[in-house]
């Protein structure tokens, strides 16, 4: 009887453990659900931990429970505890694919991708069908710089139905590093899939897609025949025009040829065919994204001017909306509607009153610009634009549409896990200042994916501030503000401090009243972190030559001047002196050209900032990463920083593309 009772108790206990593990798994699934807020996910993780503690109290050697508790610890940043639990699980039940997978992700977290790959391969030895392990191999290869192999792994995962966010995101990252040397229909289909996938930063695919299109249209062949009909049905080309900026001179030439062919046909037939309308709208979106950098011949300019006069006459005669649409579509390929004399009449309609296909173009060309203009009126810096021609008013740069994919977290968690710093005494909400935020993508990613921060994004360009403010409003973000330097300086002078400063694009020499080092020093107290980069972009031989021309001839950053400078570069693009410049995405936008040639980054600001951080009494280097994101030993980097501060150019860090994090000691 006693033995029978013990068996019943044992069976009952096993059933209770199984129920608890089922509840723990459900809670853990919730803790990793993108559909829930970070707070809800943390709550689910705590519930999961509670169920696991109960289960392991009843059955301490339960392999599944130990492994899942390891995942919870890893998500909480307790990597040593996680490692111990995964190994304990394998000791009690060898051959678990899941635990080898867990160890693989642990190795990725500890920046050991080669070791991670070994663990993932062991997982596949245990279970050949494990998509998680196969995906882990892809991540490991990507982090080892084997982008082509990782890309093929991601493609295989998509083919087998594993359409996870992390797979698309990983594939997009790899695509940016691939060399495309010939027309490849499989790559074209991949690119279409990436562009059609929501939630990805499509703007980062420009280089990859332009290479595919370059070979697809045989643009190296001067006798290549470009068919307007084929282009109007090319899904990849149309999506690329809608969503990216393609840094390729030959592709830019292709777009201008297609635009010219469309307007030539319209001039002949006095009609825009339905078959050409989608391509026309895509080119209009692309032209807006470039700040209307695309060159136009004189006859095109005359035709567009006549079309704009016609639109104005149609408004004067009270033409119905439908009668305006074709003319507006042609006009938007060449200039912003907001700059046209008839712009005020467009305001009689809301954006939603227009046909759906037309709305993205009209938003970019008129409605968004009107909203951004209203935002600019709040700042004193707007006075500087009042004397400019409408077409010469600077445009925001970089142009982006989507934030990069990130898992939601908290800044305190990252400070503890990534920098190994104590966060006990930090307040519930941390304040981040992003200096040189440009048009705000990085600043908004911080505000969006960190649930315990408020972000102050600072930039020199009023256009950037206005665009970023509008986009933050559209996303419903209430924990971020965009300010010019003048307001940030007043904010800090009033005694306000921040817990984290990130330095993006450096101020230009035009910011004569600003010392970035002094601002950083004043804005930070004990325990604050400063994150900066040691490389300065925009330093190609072509840039230096153009800046010399600008200084010698006292050139002004008008649209006409910027287009002429670009035309000069493109005419000589086979010359080695210009090739590095024409490979840079900034060159393909008037906003990017204006920044780098008329408001270049001031290297003296970075030198002063690095010299300040080299003082080991006040500052401590807590982390350094190379261009691939791998952590470096801080000792040698610290020595280089100190040597540079003492005037040693031999050991200069400037230009080495390091990402460095400093902690303020006091």
UniProtKB/TrEMBL annotation:
Signal peptide: none annotated. It comes from the Bacteria. This is TPR repeat protein. It comes from Marinobacter metalliresistant. The lineage of its organism: Bacteria, Pseudomonadati, Pseudomonadota, Gammaproteobacteria, Pseudomonadales.
């Amino acid at each position: 009887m006693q033995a029978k009772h013990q068996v019943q108790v044992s069976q009952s206990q096993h059933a209770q453990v199984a129920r608890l593990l089922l509840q723990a798994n459900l809670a853990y699934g919730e803790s990793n659900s993108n559909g829930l807020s970070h707070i809800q996910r943390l709550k689910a993780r705590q519930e999961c931990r509670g169920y696991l503690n109960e289960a392991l109290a009843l059955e301490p050697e339960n392999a599944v429970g130990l492994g899942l508790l390891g995942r919870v610890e890893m998500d909480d940043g307790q990597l040593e505890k996680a490692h111990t639990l995964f190994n304990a699980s394998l000791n009690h039940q060898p051959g678990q694919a899941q635990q080898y997978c867990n160890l693989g992700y642990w190795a990725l977290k500890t920046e050991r991708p080669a070791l991670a790959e070994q663990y993932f391969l062991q997982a596949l030895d245990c279970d050949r069908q494990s998509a998680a392990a196969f995906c882990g191999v892809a991540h490991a290869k990507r982090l080892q710089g084997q982008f082509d192999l990782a890309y093929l792994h991601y493609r295989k995962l998509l083919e087998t139905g594993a359409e996870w966010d992390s797979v698309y995101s990983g594939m997009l990252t790899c695509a940016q590093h691939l060399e495309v040397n010939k027309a490849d229909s499989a790559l074209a289909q991949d690119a279409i899939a990436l562009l059609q996938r929501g939630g990805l930063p499509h703007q980062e695919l420009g280089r990859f897609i332009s290479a595919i299109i370059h070979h697809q249209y045989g643009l190296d062949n001067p006798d290549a025949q470009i068919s307007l009909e084929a282009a109007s049905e090319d899904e990849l080309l149309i999506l690329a025009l809608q969503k990216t900026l393609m840094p390729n001179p030959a592709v830019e030439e292709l777009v201008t040829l297609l635009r010219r062919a469309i307007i030539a046909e319209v001039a002949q037939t006095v009609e825009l065919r339905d078959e050409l309308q989608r391509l026309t709208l895509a080119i209009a979106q692309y032209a807006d994204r470039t700040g209307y950098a695309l060159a136009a011949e004189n006859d095109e300019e005359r035709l567009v001017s006549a079309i704009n006069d016609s639109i104005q006459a149609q408004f004067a005669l009270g033409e119905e909306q439908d009668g305006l649409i074709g003319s507006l579509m042609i006009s938007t390929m060449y200039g912003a509607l907001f700059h046209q004399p008839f712009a005020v009449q467009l305001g009689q309609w809301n954006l939603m009153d227009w046909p759906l296909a037309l709305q993205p173009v009209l938003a970019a060309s008129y409605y968004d610009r009107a909203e951004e203009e209203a935002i600019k009126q709040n700042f004193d810096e707007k006075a500087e634009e009042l004397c400019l021609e409408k077409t010469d008013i600077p445009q925001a740069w970089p142009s982006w549409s989507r934030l990069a994919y990130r898992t939601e977290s908290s800044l305190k968690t990252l400070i503890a896990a990534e920098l190994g710093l104590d966060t006990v005494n930090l307040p519930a909400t941390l304040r981040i200042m992003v200096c040189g935020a440009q048009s705000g993508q990085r600043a908004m990613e911080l505000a969006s994916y960190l649930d315990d921060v408020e972000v102050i994004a600072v930039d020199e360009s009023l256009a950037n501030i206005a665009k970023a403010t509008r986009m933050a409003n559209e996303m419903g973000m209430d924990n971020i503000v965009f300010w010019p330097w003048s307001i940030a300086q007043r904010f800090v002078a009033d005694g306000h401090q921040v817990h984290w400063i990130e330095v993006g694009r450096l101020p230009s020499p035009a910011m004569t009243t600003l010392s970035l080092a002094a601002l950083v020093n004043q804005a930070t107290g004990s325990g604050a972190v400063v994150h900066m980069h040691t490389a300065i972009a925009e330093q190609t031989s072509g840039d230096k030559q153009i800046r010399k021309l600008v200084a010698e001839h006292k050139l002004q950053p008008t649209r006409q001047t910027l287009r002429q400078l670009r035309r000069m570069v493109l005419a000589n693009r086979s010359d080695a002196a210009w090739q590095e410049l024409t490979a840079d995405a900034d060159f393909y936008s008037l906003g990017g050209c204006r920044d780098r040639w008329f408001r270049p980054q001031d290297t003296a600001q970075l030198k002063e900032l690095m010299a300040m951080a080299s003082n080991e009494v006040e500052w401590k280097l807590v982390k350094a990463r190379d261009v691939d994101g791998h952590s470096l030993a801080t000792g040698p980097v610290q020595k280089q920083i100190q040597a540079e501060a003492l005037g040693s150019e031999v050991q200069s860090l400037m230009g080495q593309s390091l990402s460095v994090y400093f902690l303020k000691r006091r």
